[in-house]
Amino acid sequence: MHVRYVGLFAKYVGERERDFDLPDGATADDLLGRLADQYKETLPESFLDKETGRLHKSVRLATTGRAIGGEQELHDGDNLLVLFTLAGG
Q1: Are 63 and 81 in contact (CB under 8 A)?
Q2: Exposure check for the chain: N or C terminus, fewer CB within 10 A?
Q3: Residue 74 is part of which domain span?
């Protein structure tokens, strides 16, 4: 699957896109776990959950203009975006 990084996530990981091979049946959470392992040394603490070491819930995956949940199964050929969502107020 092809993954593009945008915004702050791209800035901190130092690249804008990468291809990943995941096993059949892999989910969005599986990919997020792989991203956490791969980039934990370059991402600021705010991108990581201190208790689990995984990406913070503000790091989301999207495809075709919509966010996808962690349990959603991914497929070969998927094009995904990795976003760091901010909330303010």
Answers
A1: yes
A2: C
A3: 2-84
**How many domains is the chain partitioned into structurally?**
1
Contact status, residue 68 vs residue 28, Cβ threshold 8 Å: yes
SS3 label, residue 13:
helix
Helix (H) or strand (E) holding 5: strand 2-5
| Residue 5 contacts residue 16 (beta carbons within 8 Å) | yes
In 3D space, the residue among 66, 70, 34, 36 whose CA is nearest the CA of residue 53 turns out to be 36
**What pTM was computed for the model?**
0.89
pLDDT (tens, 9 = 90+) of the chain, 89 residues, equals 999 999 999 999 999 999 999 999 999 999 999 999 999 999 999 899 989 889 998 899 999 778 899 999 999 999 999 988 875 55
Residue 89 lies in a domain: no
Count of CB atoms situated within 10 Å of the CB of 76: 9
Among 43, 19, 42, 41, which Cα is nearest to 31's? 19
